[in-house]
Design brief:
single chain; about 375 residues; alpha/beta; Enolase-like, domain 1; TIM Barrel; 2 domains; five-stranded antiparallel sheet; about 25% strand; globular
């Protein structure tokens, strides 16, 4: 792999208005923000990455300022042997910043976006799809599920997702026992043969509530119960819940660092492991976690719920993993998903079809989303 020397960093912030807010147990999204980063090397090769910024609502511009003032100057005119070298160096060099600022998550998210862009750049430069750079046995399509299904009109949303080509669905829960169970029963009753159904509590419950709800879900055709407890609860609480629940547990989107994932994998309670490349790790960190997951005979299912570039990074990681995991695809209307990933992949009988173009295989159509751009900075 040829040396990488970045000469220009650009950061774009977009905000897309939504007619129907996206709700989770922890809060509501009243618009859809996206932070993109574009890196260009001294030879003109370029790559795109995405920085997680869903919550809080003001977070997108804040992350862009971190990139502009601190992280981009750290990589301009600096040589790295590979994206992994850059990720490891920057992670070490910014450790004190995480302590001083109290913002380890923000820094991890920015580093994740930079790492995705570096991998996109390198694989474009080599003329190969990113997934093939990771694994010679990478798939050309990955099974997907419709995510972000709100509690209001949930069954109707599943029907529309089915009509759009999805065969797997995930419902947001954590809005009260009667409402959650009613939605679950209605969706479960309408499932067709071969369809899968998951639920996500978004860290809404304590152990007592989670165990009670898991008991009430018994007998429902659920593939997994996601984040029923806050991610930082002791491993013993998770094991206790696992032992009392007939529904497999899923989690991992809110962890940072390889050690945290090693502990999760070893703990034994998590069947579906869900790192988010835009929250932590980018391609480099998540690919290391993917191999941990495979070695433990668990299932890798990338978490993602934002713009098109991050979605494609998750898709390439899942394709390279060549396992039995599912790709999370937000079913809520969001022009920053399709508009920032052209040509947007086709969904065929539940499978997300990847093209053979180099890198992520897509590029943002900046002209198409220009009216949603709220910030642009360039560092060279």
């Amino acid at each position: 792999m040829n040396e990488i020397n970045i000469r220009r960093v650009e950061c774009y912030v977009f905000r897309a208005p939504v007619d129907v807010p996206v709700v989770a147990a922890f809060g509501t999204f009243h618009d859809r923000p996206v932070v993109l980063v574009r890196l260009e090397d001294r030879d003109g090769a370029f790559g795109w990455g995405e920085v997680w910024c869903n919550f809080p609502n003001s977070g997108a511009e804040h992350r862009a300022r971190w990139l502009e003032t601190l992280l981009a100057p750290r990589i301009i005119d600096r040589s790295f042997g590979s994206p992994e070298d850059a990720f490891d160096a920057l992670t070490a060099e910014t450790h004190v910043w995480t302590l001083q600022s109290g913002e380890p998550g923000t820094i991890s998210q920015c580093l994740g976006g930079l790492d995705i862009a570096l991998w996109d750049l390198v694989s474009r430069r080599q003329g190969t799809p990113l997934r093939d750079l990771l694994s010679p046995s990478a798939l050309g399509a990955v099974p997907a599920y419709a995510s972000g299904i709100n509690p209001d009109g949930a069954s109707e949303t599943v029907g529309r997702a089915r009509d759009a080509g999805f065969r797997n669905f995930k419902l947001k829960i954590g809005f009260g026992e009667d409402r959650d169970l009613g939605n679950m029963r209605e969706i479960a009753d309408g499932l067709a043969d071969g369809e899968r159904f998951m639920v996500d509590a978004n860290q809404a419950w304590d152990l007592t509530t989670a165990a009670d709800m898991a008991g009430r879900m018994a007998g429902m055709p659920l593939t997994w119960l996601e984040e029923p407890l806050p991610a930082d609860r002791p491993a013993q609480e998770w094991r206790t819940l696992c032992e009392s629940s007939e529904i497999p547990l899923a989690g991992g989107e809110n962890l940072r660092g390889e050690a945290a994932y090693q502990n999760l994998v070893k703990a034994g309670w998590c069947r579906f492991v869900q790192p988010d490349a835009c929250k932590w790790g980018g391609i480099t960190g998540c690919w290391r976690v993917v191999r941990m997951i495979a070695d433990a005979s668990l299932t890798y299912c990338p978490h993602f719920l934002a713009g098109g570039i991050g979605l494609m990074a998750a898709a390439h990681l899942l394709a390279a993993a060549n396992g039995d995991g599912l790709l999370e695809v937000d079913f809520n209307a969001n022009p920053l998903r399709e508009g920032l990933a052209e040509p947007y992949p086709e969904l065929v009988e539940g499978a997300f079809m990847l093209n053979d173009a180099p890198g992520l295989g897509v590029e943002p159509d900046l002209a198409a989303v220009r009216d949603m751009q709220v910030m642009h900075v360039e560092i060279a």
